[in-house]
Amino acid sequence: MGKKMDDTAKADGLSGKEAGSFSLIPETSEGLQEMQLEDQTNPNELSTEFGSTLRLPEGIDVNPADIDIEFADEKMIINMGPQHPSTHGVLRLMMELDGEVILRTKPVVGYLHTGMEKTGENLTYLQGPTNVTRMDYLSPLHNELVFSLATEKLLGLELPERATWIRMLMTELNRCTSHLMWMATNGMDLGSTSMMLYGFREREMILAFFEKVTGLRMNHNYIRPGGVAADLPDGWEDDVMSILETIPGRLDEYDELLTGQPIFRERVDNVGILTAEQAVALSATGPILRSTGVAWDLRRDMPYLNYDQVEFDVIVGSVGDCFDRYSVRLNEIRESLRIIAQVVEKMPSGDYRIQDKKVTPPPRIRIDESMEALIHHFKLFTHGFKIPEGEVYVAVESPRGELGCYLVSDGSNRPYRMHIRGPSFVNLQTLPAMLRGGIIADAIAAISSVDPVMGEVDR
Amino acid sequence: MSTSEILHVERAGYLAAIEDLKSQGFEMCADVTAVDYLTNMGRQLPDGVVPQRYEVVVVLLSLAKRSRMRIRVQVPEDDPTIETLFFLYPGSEAMEREVYDLFGIKFVNHPDLTRILMPQDWDGHPLRKDYSVGAVPVQFKSVNGAG
Fold first, then answer.
1. In angstroms, what separates the C-alpha of B147 from chain A's closest C-alpha?
2. What percent of chain B has pLDDT over 90?
3. B31, A53: Cβ pair inside 8 Å?
4. Number of domains in chain A
5. A417: which chain B residues are within 8 Å (Cβ-Cβ)?
6. Taking all residues of chain B, what is their mean pLDDT, rounded to a whole number?
7. Percent helix / strand / coil, chain B, rounded to 5
8. Where in chain B are the domains?
9. pLDDT 10s digits, A385-438
10. Which residue of B has its CA nearest to A295?
11. Residue among A41, A53, A425 minimizing CB distance to B90
12. CATH class held by domain B4-108
């Protein structure tokens, strides 16, 4: 930012020093990561603004060299974030504005980067879920699931049926909590404070169930390679049934509160429109892609776990605006509840983790009786287990889109490389397309509708 | 589990191979990542593929055919460059910036090849195997008057 401020000062006939009050401390500047003035920006980057790299009809003939760079006095580049309440964490958007109209947007990320992929290379496969669960902190169970599935695919394990169904139950409940949280914050961003409280109230109900099952409300480390950490507690059916009975009624209340409400509709209808071509070109997945009318859901199209044995609908939108993304998520909660009801019905009895001594520690009771069991337990948790050499890419449908895990093993007890394809990270690229030509107030609605979780964007 | 195929391509024919795949219906680029095989050069590879230090891994997705394709490209240590996919798949932009940031592999013709997760003035590329954990010294300062 400092550089640009200096440039403006120079244009006004001031030297950098005289304009000292304008310039920021150089060390805090992100330099080239920031949005540059148009004449300092790569023409190819500018050409995305006209859709020429997105292969859009209006942009298909634009030659990057022909783009006119206007030097209008009204244009300015401003920062939104990283400490803006509507950016859901530490997302920083640099916007070029003409009055109140947004011309260009550039997301600047990395403020929450903690090197989790590097950390993952130094943890054993059993410690891995503890690490990945902290990436997307609103859907921790999906992160654990994708890591465990990748590990199991490299090992060639066949899971017991009950473990698979427990995983489905927990991840679908997690989808509900994540979407409910989104409903709450989206309502808050658009001025509906009561929605904030309602969303959290319903989410709390499911989190209480998570606490009962896993011991923790977030970052559970519950789904592990080889199965799940513990069996479902006694009486879990009653808890799930009360969730299934309560939430649909509450969703209808949301419909009354928001869906039909003119003030809310004014904020979201035809705001932040993304077309199907743009969404596919920009690799968007999840509710963003579905809201444009592309029926793509990994649970149906590339089934994992037992999703091929349950019935559910893939919710799609038609316009691709903020309202479509809202209604896709709202109805996905209903579909998740439908899946959960089927899972409860089909839950088989049996083992909740694989009975393979290489992967599964001995039961707690055995440790008190047998020295060998104690040693076995100790070895498993300190050294872990080795995985044959290989590489694998596994993807699941997280509440935000395709959550992928690329795992490379060199035959040791730690991943040689662990890469998580975070859906929020990729989905953020749709923001410049959504915001172009809109006004700042619409930006709030659009940012919220992308549902970025910065823990996953920055990893 | 989904069907997934693996394709090894030469770096010289990388862009042409991806363009060919795109015309075959792989309309989305799901993932771009890389691996530094510095300490595992003897890994298993099909015949004819010469192992190099870096490997760029691209995952393409065909929505119509419901299939995935994983493309693995060997990138040598002395010239860590590869063509960008930006003009075929604009969505690969941020992912390629991430690979550049964390591995130091340069994407030729990328419109905005800057660091994305690390600060701009950062030294080194953290996910390389010769970049050890704890390479950045942490200085603990004593509080004035304490101790």
1. 31
2. 20
3. no
4. 2
5. 35-36, 127
6. 85
7. 15, 25, 55
8. 4-108
9. 889 998 899 999 999 999 999 999 988 889 999 999 989 999 998 888 888 888
10. B63
11. A53
12. alpha beta
Determine whether the interchain pair B94/A389 forms a contact, defined as Cβ–Cβ distance below 8 Å.
no
Could you report the predicted ipTM of this complex, rounded to two decimals?
0.87
Whether A33 sits inside 8 A of B116 (CB atoms) is yes
Same domain for A205 and A83, yes or no, is: no
In this complex, the residue of A33, A42, A294 whose CB is nearest that of residue B63 is A294
Q: How far is A379 from chain B (nearest CA, A)?
A: 24
Question: Which pTM was predicted?
Answer: 0.87
Contacts of A41 (CB under 8 A, 6+ apart): A35, B112
Q: How many CB pairs under 8 A join A and B?
A: 127
Q: Are B117 and A458 inside 8 Å of each other by CB? A: yes
Contacts of A65 in chain B (CB under 8 A): none
Kind and range of the H or E element at A360? none
**Which residues, 6 or more positions from A230, have their beta carbon under 8 angstroms from its beta carbon?**
A213, A214, A215, A222, A352
Asked if A125 and A193 sit in the same domain, the reply is yes
Domain with A70 in it: 2-108
Could you give the C-alpha distances from A138 to A65, A203, A456, B104, in angstroms and in order?
Answer: 43, 11, 10, 31
Dump pLDDT digits (tens) for A372-384: 889 988 988 888 8
Statement to judge: residues A127 and A102 lie in one domain: no
Burial A31-53 (b: 16+ CB within 10 A, else e): eebbbbebeebeebbbbbbbbbb
Cβ proximity of A149 and A405 under 8 Å: yes
